[in-house]
Amino acid sequence: MTISDALRGRTIAVLGGTGPQGRGLARRFAAAGLDVFLGSRSAERAVETAGSLPGRVRGASNADAATAGDVVVVAVPWDGHAELLTDLAPVLAGKIVVDCVNPLGFDKQGAYALSVAEGSAAQQAAGILTGSTVVAAFHHVSAVILEDPQLDTVDTDVLVLGDDRAATDLVQDLAAAIPGVRGVYGGRLRNAHQVEAFTANLISMNRRYKAHAGVRVTDV
Questions:
Q1: Which residues of 57-75 are buried (b: 16+ CB within 10 A; e: fewer)?
Q2: Which InterPro entries does its entry note (predicted)?
Q3: Which stretch of DSSP H or E encloses residue 71?
Q4: pTM attached to this predicted model
Q5: What distance in Å separates the CA atoms of residue 96 and residue 75, rounded to the nearest whole number?
Q6: What is the pLDDT of residue 134?
């Protein structure tokens, strides 16, 4: 997949990049030819993880990665979401921030969506990062598939939500940089809750069918 002109020359930072989702996205972005900064609470762990990935991937603390990135992907656990973004708000000002965090709980019956006072993780991010442009995306992409070096393509669509057309277009291009993936505009940021919550349904499907299900949108 060719990198779009809008993405060319931009650095992608992935915060929480040593976790499965962040690490998988970093792998795919780097494989597409993008420069990637992989962030973590531990810079040493980030450097070690970055060294295990192909392509132009550098490890750093979350703060240093956020500073270096032109587009910043947030892939941290829900429990640390608000705290991290509050700390990094000054360095994220003026940047496109892509939130892919799913607020989920787990009990004996499986995964379920948590209530978020702001409506969704993405809306919480937008409330904290008032100087940034927040886009919601990459919620439904299997980390197992992203991390599998034997798979050249990832068969899924990525729903992209936001209130700024140029930003959502750029994030759709970022999704499409991964072979097999298509970025599909999914509405305004206020609609992010049901997209985040649907991840609980996918987890249930994966457990029942022993799969790594994604989402495909028809007729667009």
A1: bbbbbbbbbbbbbbbbbbb
A2: NAD(P)-bd_dom_sf (IPR036291), NpdG (IPR010185), P5C_Rdtase_cat_N (IPR028939), STEAP_metalloreductase (IPR051267)
A3: strand 71-74
A4: 0.97
A5: 14
A6: 99
